[in-house]
Known about the structure:
A: alpha/beta, Rossmann fold, six-stranded parallel sheet, 13 strands, B: mainly alpha, globular, disordered C terminus
Amino acid sequence: MQLEAALKQYYGFDDFRPGQKEILEDILSGHDVLGMLPTGTGKTLIYQLATVLLKGRALIVSPLVSLMQDQVDQFKQTGFKRTVALNSFLDHSDKQSVLNHLKDYQFVFVSPEIMQNKYIRSALLSVNWSLFVVDEAHCISQWGHEFRPYYLDLAFIRKKLGNPVCLALTATAAVKVQEDILKYLEMKDAKVHIHSVNRPNISIFVESFSDVEQKLDRALELITELKGPGIVYTNTRRGAEQLVTVLHERGIQDVSYYHGGMDQDERLLVQKQFLNSQLQLIVCTNAFGMGINKPDIRFVIHYNAPANVEGYVQEIGRAGRDLQPSAAILLYHPSDLEIPFHFIENELPDDNQIDYILSDYDVLAEQTLSERLQLAGISETGQRFMEYHLNNSGVLYEKCVPEVKRESLKKILKKKIEERKREKLNSLRMIEKWIMDEGCKRSMMLKYFGEEEIAEKDYCCSGCQDELTRFYGKEEKETHIYQVWEDELKRLFRQEV
Amino acid sequence: MDIYFAIIMDILRKVDGSRKCSGIYYIVTGKKTSQSLSDSQWFEIEQYYASLKGLTLDDFNSIIDQLYTEELIMPKENNVFVVTKKGEEFLEETKDRYLFIGKLNGLKYAAIEHKCWQIITLFVQSLSNSLYNNFDFSPVIRESEAAEKVKILFPRSEQQRNHIASLLYNELNTVLQTCDPGGAEIFVKKLSGYKRIGNTFEQSAREWGSTRTETVLRFRSVLHQIFKSIREQPERHLVLNSLIGDFIVVPALTKSALQTYHLLKKEKDIKEIMKIRNLKLSTMEDHLVEIAREIPEFSIHPYISEEEKERVILFYNKTKKFKLRPIKEAFPHLTYLQIRLVLAKEGGKNAVGSGA
Lengths: 497, 356
């Protein structure tokens, strides 16, 4: 009963959502926990409440540096004011002051990369932690869709922190990935709570097009008809901007784009406008999503197919958090997969680049491998990957590495990269297959995550003849009546008009 | 495109063949070098400093190409352009449309405008919501510096809030009335408050049927006008002054030069400072020049005699070319540092004269 009382006290809720209470009980009795809970089912609440009840402090490892601040904001709004994020956005003096007062914080967010910094690490070691939360834990597995090499160091760091209870969380992890999480985080006797990725209130529709123009027309039709608010995902920033331009030309005004290339202040405005229902539609890349806690999103359209089933499930999971019927619609054209394909091909360094970085040091005198890495022209992910492995072999900051070692490193790295590519291409083929297959989309998705099929087939998916038209009914929202600035300024300050 | 044309051509006209394109690129993008800073003052183009922040070199060059193709400018020598007759006419025609550009002062405010805006908009959003008794809103600014400032200054009681609201309303309204109506509207719509999140520049540009760049510049010119009003009459802008006055009065020194200045004030000499701060001589000299330019009460007399200073000023008022080499040739016994210090001081006076 104590748990329910705390829930009421801190959140005003009477009941836990499925899974929350069980995990909390396990944590409070000192067990490590792996929790796989679909997006939007209140993962955050679990570690907030656990930390409160343990009367302690939680370290939360999250890979999404750019969105960490959203989480901090949400924590503060919920009433957990002593929350802070340590990331590269903090300037030096801010960081200094946070580190000096670390003991005053209850929740500290970090990225796995920033913990490589010796100074930060030693500050983290100077206080006690009662909970070690690994968010997006699937990043630890190279079989997962978002492998982050530095996640592999977390077990070591946790040990150094005095082995606080570990809570690993993910929304989507295939069985193999779940096994990797337990293994690499060295979670012994962990309790495993796997909840279905199924979100019964979201109907899944897939439509294929052989003509890009037709697909655009269909997207426009859906956007004009579907009851909002909604999100449209594209797979490039340019794609998002272009679609918004077309929508504006067609007279659809309450829509803006959102992507990682925008200035921080502007991005925040768009996000808040959407939360505030000033915008009914956001067209965005996958940079938009996490940190957006909008319960009433009625549809998610994928204007391009995403690169894997895991990503797709997460993105459609942003719809219908209020448990009301919602629609996920994927508009597929074969060219959609070219961009992720290209991305997979170029994300990690190719053989030439590996050879360059590990070339004979006479040629590139006076450069450490780390410096060469900067010059090799590889993606950020690629750099992170190389940095991790070179650092692990103790050569990242070396200038002269013996030839034998270099040659063996080359071989190992090339092999790792090949494996990783193969795995990603495999994921891409999986989603292609899922799109093309004419059976029940939901069943196939569940099968992918190793779950049992479901019996209930009402309002399921395009494979089960669900009707998209039942989600129509866009309301003509009264657009903000234009005011001259003088009146608006009066209104803002509540001066008599 | 027109606004780019207008800005770059006006600079070319005022620089009158004394600077290469690259120098002009550094000015419009607000590069923090002694050269760009002193050029901005000397040629009386302070307003354009950092006016096109973020413009890429490629884009800049293609604008120059376009201006050249359209015969609005012509080459004087390699990479140096002057405005043609046709160009002069273009500037004359667009002058009225871009009057707001004259209210910009990038040199003074580019370094602090963003910070100040963040504080203003966050304060207004918080105040506006609380005036309507809504205390559960999501802030549009999350930088800790702005948040701290707003937290400290936020009026606690309802009575105080009403009082501050009417003061701030009047302060803003008064300044905005003096701005061009377009700028005022962009500014007000960019503010967030009760039941409305502010526009992005993109959105305002669309409502206005204008470009994003022009919208940003109109907004910034309003912001700069607010700064100027606070600076000139702090007593008539009590709330705004309490919010951002600190940033506006502080001279626009780089952080590093500011540290050097603090040490100078503690009567450390150049050698000591170089040792304490582990600075190279060239960096130290850059700092001195920066300080000489930005801080009126900083005297350059320890470094050059009044007599020599007057002679340099006289010489260069005659030639009117802000270039070091001819001056150095005329005064071989002076160091470059001494000449630069004089020009920094003199350029500063020049700027004050034109700004008032």
